[in-house]
Design a protein that fits this description.
- The protein is of the alpha/beta class and about 290 residues long.
- It has two domains: about 1-45; about 50-285, Metallo-dependent phosphatases (Purple Acid Phosphatase, chain A, domain 2, 4-Layer Sandwich), CATH 3.60.21.10.
- The protein contains six helices and twelve strands.
- β2 (about 70-75), α2 (about 85-100) and β3 (about 105) form a beta-alpha-beta unit.
- About 40% of the residues are buried.
Length: about 290
């Protein structure tokens, strides 16, 4: 047999393997599509409704000993809309109230796309929230500047728009500063923080404000906005939230502690994958020096 010419036996063997390879690739593709479809169905039908309670320690530099153990409830990114029901929001409210927090923080995005039809329904769904030291709210990028804050204030909530409030708690004082979504200059945030106690908490809808908080030596930030990525793929992660310094949970960066909530609702796509909605309770603690 001359070199470079396969025998008829080898050609037959090669051709017999090709159909098997095609069958395998088709099966693999079908499995991947089926897994993706199944994951999407699970995320739409079940996971986006499966609220979890997250309980985490929240260490703050300079926290007075008297404030250690203070429990702060956090709800963010309600996104009341056609796909985020009244029942889901009231379930989140009920779960948080069952935790009996000392104070409640609301992190913005109560509706989607500033849809005025859901402004009052969103506020109504949150109306049962109460705590010994009150409920403090900020706005998100999906909220308008007039109707939404007015609806929240009508429920007795303190709404902070580039403003700060001081609360007497356990014989100490605690400052909470809240900034608008579009307030991102260090000087503007410094103006809001001016005169705050050293253990103040900054409420900022987006965790991107962590950078400015670090520059200003703000000890703590509470945020939302990311939805924890909403869709978190195995081996890939939260693709949609990669541009944020923190996607979810509690982290410490250069003296600033930040908590980012996964939120309650959804936006863009009404599903969650490997990223269930959450109600959070943060227990204040002192920073452990190592």
């Amino acid at each position: 047999m001359p070199d470079g010419h396969p025998s008829s036996t080898n050609r037959a063997a090669g051709s017999s393997r090709m159909p098997h390879r095609r069958v395998f690739l088709k099966a693999l593709t079908g499995t991947a599509i089926g897994a993706a479809a199944g994951g999407a169905a699970h995320g739409f039908l079940y996971e986006r409704h499966h609220l979890e309670v997250t309980r985490q320690a929240f260490p703050i530099s300079g926290l007075p000993e008297a404030l250690r153990g203070l429990r702060i409830g956090v709800l963010t990114d309600i996104h009341r809309s056609q796909t985020v029901s009244h029942a889901l929001v009231t379930s989140a409210v009920g779960m948080l109230m069952a935790e009996r927090p000392d104070l409640i923080l609301l992190g913005g995005d109560y509706v989607s796309w500033r849809d005025q039809r859901y402004v009052h329904p969103a506020a109504d769904a949150l109306a049962a929230l109460s705590a010994p030291h009150g409920v403090i709210a900020i706005l998100g990028n999906h909220d308008d500047e007039r109707e939404m804050p007015a609806a929240l204030a009508a429920k007795g909530f303190i709404v902070l728009k580039d403003a700060r409030t001081r609360l007497p708690i356990r014989g100490e004082v605690m400052d909470f500063a809240g900034v608008r979504y579009w307030t991102n200059k260090v000087g503007d945030i410094a103006h809001v923080m001016r005169g705050a106690v050293p253990h103040a908490i900054l409420l900022a809808h987006t965790p991107r404000r962590l950078l400015e908080a670090q520059q200003l030596a703000v000890p703590a930030v509470v945020s939302g906005h990311t939805h924890g990525g909403q869709i978190v793929l195995p081996g890939i992660g939260a693709v949609a939230a990669r541009g944020f310094p923190v996607i979810a949970g509690v982290e410490q960066h250069q003296g600033t502690t930040i908590f980012v909530s996964r939120g309650v609702g959804t936006v863009y796509l009404p599903l969650r994958i490997n990223c269930p909605p959450e109600v959070a309770v943060l227990t204040l603690d002192t920073v452990t020096r190592t």
